Amino acid sequence: MAAVLLILSGATAILQADLLPDKKFHSLLLPPVNFTIKITGLAKVLLQWEPDPRQERRDVNLAYRVRINAPQEDDYETMDTESQCVTILHKGFSASVQTIIWDEYSVPASSWVSAELKEPPDHLGSPGTSIVNLTCTTNAVVSNYMHLRPYQMSLRCTWLVGQDAPEDTQYFLYYRYGSWTEECQEYSKDTLKRNIACWFPRTFINSKARGRLAVHVNGSSKHAAIKPFDQLLALQDIDQENPPVNVTAGIEGTRLSIQWEKPVSAFPISCFHYEVKIHNIRKDYVQTEKMMINTFSWIIDDVSKHSVQVRAAVHTVCGKKGHWSEWSQPIYVGNDEQAPSTEWFIIVLMSAICFVLLMLSLICRICHLWTKLFPPVPAPKSNIKDLFGSTNYEKAGSSETEIEAISYVEEAGLENLEDSVF
Ligand SMILES: *[C@@H]1O[C@H](CO)[C@@H](O)[C@H](O)[C@H]1NC(C)=O
Ligand SMILES: *[C@@H]1O[C@H](CO)[C@@H](O)[C@H](O)[C@H]1NC(C)=O
Ligand SMILES: *[C@@H]1O[C@H](CO)[C@@H](O)[C@H](O)[C@H]1NC(C)=O
Ligand SMILES: *[C@@H]1O[C@H](CO)[C@@H](O)[C@H](O)[C@H]1NC(C)=O
């Protein structure tokens, strides 16, 4: 038993010794030769090198460690003799490479060879002339070539003119996606006719892309060299989801139901979730609801006018950051005039009735007082006759005063009657 174990362990030791390359690899690793850096596109360089022809390669996997020194440090290994690198090249680019053996760290790596790109001459320009605050967004649009691919991306970028850019400055925007580079054809201008925004109705950008978009804005002027501007944008971050389409809403009784379609987007319907915003315009009350499906119904307590809007976002599981789209255009449901006007009518009617009642009771009170102040005199005829008779004897005839007295008594009686009614 012990003998068997001994033989087994001996066998594994021999096996391990066989696998170790340094048992066979006796020479030192030589650095690569002819290392070059070439600009191959906007914000894109190609690094190339060759193994030294004197390098012994028998039974080993030669590989290379690439180190980017500027503008941004990076470190990686490859078995290729070239490597592509996407980065901003404003401030030049420098990198080093050394020979290693793939997955074998006991053999010391070769020395480094380095190369660099100086700040490109066309990146020199007067300070303050380059654009600032570049922002770009992409939007899915229905493709002109439905059969090839149903959706394409549009691209819109805006920027501000450099504060020291001469008045005659003109800016030009380019984007690169993969191997495609395009110059903008549709610019918007400021009051000095300088381009300040750009619109690509359709681009080569893949509608589900997660890569990076390179944007380059250079310019020209008779009075100054315009400093170009480069930016790399993560497509995930700049993609603006479209709002849902065909939003419809209706009220049946007190049930408000809303339907909509998924936005124009390469993402399938299962990737979307939504938010519905219902605004009761009369009460100025807003309610929002999140949901996974594209219909929604809700019991409302009054059927006055409501506005309804919906927005959409792609779930993070579908590979997006889940930014909300803009709200859809508001659509209106419910009665605008009727409900409030009937209420107003009732209020006005009620106050009118109250007013009339109040006035009537006031009048009656005044009348009551009147009757109390000047109670009907039990026997006015003789008194008045005497009064008038004594003071104005020659002028007034007795028949005239009699009529006056009678009419007064009648009026007082009538008012007493009304008083008793209320
Ligand atoms: C390196 O470059 C030189 C000159 O361009 C060329 O003659 C030589 O063949 C290259 N070496 C290798 C290994 O490609
Ligand atoms: C432009 O960007 C700078 C910082 O990047 C910010 O301070 C400034 O407010 C921005 N200007 C405008 C008009 O957005
Ligand atoms: C701007 O950049 C593009 C792309 O690199 C180049 O073709 C063009 O000549 C440049 N224009 C100016 C005015 O520098
Ligand atoms: C929206 O409605 C129109 C007309 O009713 C229809 O042609 C279109 O296909 C609908 N859009 C979607 C995305 O369903």
UniProtKB/TrEMBL annotation:
The chain crosses the membrane at residues 344-364. Residues 1-17 form the signal peptide. SUPFAM superfamilies: Fibronectin type III (SSF49265). PROSITE patterns: HEMATOPO_REC_S_F2. GO terms for cellular component: external side of plasma membrane. Pfam families: IL6Ra-bind. GO terms for molecular function: interleukin-5 receptor activity. This is Interleukin 5 receptor subunit alpha.
